[in-house]
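Reviewer comment 2.1 asked that we show a complete input and output for one of the modelled complexes. We chose the 3-isopropylmalic acid case, as it is the one discussed in the main text.
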Amino acid sequence: MSKTLVEKIWDAHVVKSEEGFPDILYIDTHLIHEVTSPQAFDGLRKRGLPVLRPKQTVATADHNVPTIDQHLPIKEELSRYQVDMLTKNCAEFGVELYGLGHPFQGIVHVIGPELGITLPGKTMVCGDSHTSTHGAFGAIAFGIGTSQVEQVLATQCLLQQKPKTMKIEVNGTLNAGVRAKDIILYIISKISAAGGTGYFIEYAGTAIQSLSMEARMTICNMSIEMGARGGLIAPDEITFEYVKGRRFAPQGEAWDKALAYWKTLYSDADAQFDSVLSFDAADIEPMITYGTNPGMGMGITQHIPATAAQPDSEQFSYQKALDYMGFKDDEPLLGKQVDYVFIGSCTNSRIEDLREVAEFVYGRQKAPNVEVWIVPGSKQVEKQAIEEGLDKVFEAAGFGLREPGCSACLGMNEDKIPAGKYCISTSNRNFEGRQGPNARTLLVSPLTAAAAAVTGQITDVRTLLNHPELA
Ligand SMILES: CC(C)[C@H](C(=O)O)[C@@H](O)C(=O)O
Ligand code: SF4
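Response of the prediction step:
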């Protein structure tokens, strides 16, 4: 029988399936961080249970960590407490921790791939919604709640209903200045922040296949922003090339065996999806969000859609979102002043993102009215950036290169955007207060963020390409 990629991986991991009940799904890898694991460990302790397979669990500290002076004790009390709890729990239960100061520390969704922990065909979970990022490798990866974290720690299994499947195809060639982030913001703007609810999405088509692994991660990362359980992309030569030689990737004979299996991981030609959508890459321009959910996005040259054009039932919340943002119906965004530029988060803080920003700003300066924070996704990204001299480019441009963590993506540490200020951000959520109480977030690609950093206003990056300084 022909199967989708999701079905192939799912079926290979079902421990037990009974009509009328959720499946018992085996979990290959469990990633944990300081925010959603403390209660789960407490639960185990209360029941006198160990972590069943500690070697399949990997921990990092990311959400609460400061991004300046990480070698010093964490000042903020709640953050310090959470990170200390993680350290204590990992030591007690025998779980590997890449905590502050460790060369592998970083945002959980950045370190899994770069360490070769994230692999095709795996089932992976984390108490974190953006676990969908790992789907870029052709894995079933999704976020779970704290009680499920406890379930997985105790049993290495999870009770899960088999999801419905959706295929989203993007075909054709991307326009100049259009990046993976624009593709996913475009898709979400078309199908809405609820358009993927209940589905596992497979991204396919020539425009997707042409993307690097890091760009594919950006796409899969935001699957959750349209309500999907997860998103994935069939592994191919680009995937295998990326994985090969990474620290925890299989080697030698194990590699050959794994590779042979990975090559079977694609949706069969006649596999049935519950829903199929198709987009043309040529229709996509650099994107920006203007509202308070990631579905409220538009091409950067467009005008904000009118409230009256929204469905009746949504007009109230639509207007509320525009009020929060300080925007009006039919306004263009180009030329509006911004206050902060945040380049970071599990969506866009990998080395390719930093390289692209550095290349763009080389020989340019940040505008005087903006503060620019570059927050690498991990210690390894930071190290690589410094080795490549990107830090010097950022410094010369007046950008602040900080230490790794979630940072202003959600402002759980001190990296908060002040009330009322506009932040051009490469992160994935623009919810009210997301980057700080009353902060206003505009989601964009790293390239569009770099353009705003240089001009101090919302800018169509295409007008600044063909940098004279670049050969
Ligand atoms: C703190 C954590 C549970 C949360 C998530 O699940 O996504 C965070 O990572 C986020 O991006 O909002
Ligand atoms: S970077 Fe942002 S989206 Fe990603 S895990 Fe951290 S808080 Fe969540």
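The domain at 291-464 is CATH 3.30.499.10 (Aconitase; domain 3). We note this here for comparison with the apo prediction described in Section 3.2.
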